[in-house]
Amino acid sequence: MEKHYRHLLISAALACGGFGLLLLSGRFDIYADVLMLVFFAGAVGAVVNNYFRVSRLVENDQALEAAKHSRMVMIQMYVSLVIGGTLALAAYGLFAGGLLQGSLFPVFKKLDVEYVGVTKFLLELGPSTHRDAALALFWGFVAGYSERFVPNVIDSLVKKDAPETRV
After folding, report:
1. What is the pTM of this model?
2. Which of 10, 147, 134 shows the shortest CA–CA distance to 77?
């Protein structure tokens, strides 16, 4: 079990370290991009979820014994960082695209600017206020922590907008 916690610690250092370095660099106006912060917020959410998964392994003797002989648990800890970050970026896109709206979700500025290229798009599109940036980070964490959040939203959007088939 010790090796699982060791790998959990390494993955936490990667996710939290990346997030912390971005915050620190932003503090000194070196570089801080909200998209990268959202990605790392999702990765940190995945680490927290992994912690609870490993803790549950300790409580279940059969699962613990199976995990001892499987490398998949350790591989999953690292893959989940990338998946959590990717889901956080997908959630960010759902908010920026106006597919998820409401007082609990971030609002974005410069949505109606004509698209002229990816560089301008990435540099100009962003949360409207500090509150919106904080909400984007929060939902990025949630997307990484609750790995079914974004897929469930996408599934419900597809079902809602899918054309009905007639027999």
Report:
1. 0.84
2. 10
Contact at 8 Å (CB) between 7 and 53? no
Burial class (CB in 10 A: 0-12, 13-18, 19+), 98: exposed
For the chain, domain boundaries: 2-161
**Token pair of 60 as six digits:** 């279940």
Task: Tell me the pLDDT tens digit for each residue of 71-89.
Answer: 777 788 899 999 999 999 9
Q: CA-CA distance, 72 to 69, in Å (whole number)?
A: 9
Q: Which of 58 and 54 is assigned the larger pLDDT?
A: 54
CB 15, CB 44: distance < 8 Å: yes
CA–CA gap between residue 20 and residue 129 (Å, rounded): 21
Q: Which of 65-91 are b and which e, b meaning 16 or more Cβ less than 10 Å from the residue's Cβ? A: eebeeeeebbebbeebbebbbbbbbbb
Tell me how crowded residue 128 is: count the other CB atoms within 10 A of its CB.
13
